[in-house]
Amino acid sequence: MEKEELMRKAIKLSIDNVTNGGGPFGAVIAKDGEIIATGVNRVTTLCDPTAHAEVSAIRAAATKLGTFNLSGCEIYTSCEPCPMCLGAIYWARLDKMYYANNKTDAKNIGFDDSFIYDELSLKPSARKLPSEILLAEEAIKAFQQWTEKSDKIEY
Ligand SMILES: [Zn+2]
Q1: Which pTM does this prediction carry?
Q2: Distance in Å, CA 9 to ligand 1 centroid
Q3: Where is the CMP/dCMP-type deaminase domain (predicted)?
Q4: What string of DSSP letters covers the chain?
C-alpha cells in the first residue's frame, strides 16, 4: 500500500472510532507497505488514560511481531502525537512517522497536550506536577544489579 492509502486507513479508523464512542484518533503501523497493526483511542471505553491510538497500535504490532523493537516499521497516525505517544514511538524504534491533523487542530477541539510539552522542558521542581526524590539510595540497588547482570536483554 502507498503511504496515502495507509494514512487514509488511519483517518478512517479515527472517524469510525468517533461513531463507536471513542476519541477521534487512529493509527496504523506498517512494514514494507503492509499493515501490521492498527489502533484507536480507547481512553474512555477502556477507562485507560494510556489507551491512545499510537500506543495501542504499538502494543498490537509488538505482540504480533513478537518483538519490542519495531525498527523497519512506520507509523501513520491521524494526528500529531502527544508526548506519551511520541515517547512510545521512539522507544519502539519506529523508522518514520506520518501524521495528518496537527497539535493545533487537536487543541482546537479540546485535546490540548501543549502543557505537557511545556512541562517537559522544565526541571522537576518547576513543573506543575509536585514531585520529590525519595529513597534514591535504596532504589539504586536495582540499577547496580542490572549493571552486574550478565544475561540481561538490553533494549
Ligand atoms: Zn498519545
Answers
A1: 0.94
A2: 18
A3: 1-112
A4: --HHHHHHHHHHHHHHHHHTTS-S-EEEEEETTEEEEEEE--HHHHT-TT--HHHHHHHHHHHHHT-S--TTEEEEEEEPPPHHHHHHHHHTT-SEEEEEE-HHHHHHTT---HHHHHHHTS-GGGSSS-----SHHHHHHHHHHHHH-SS----
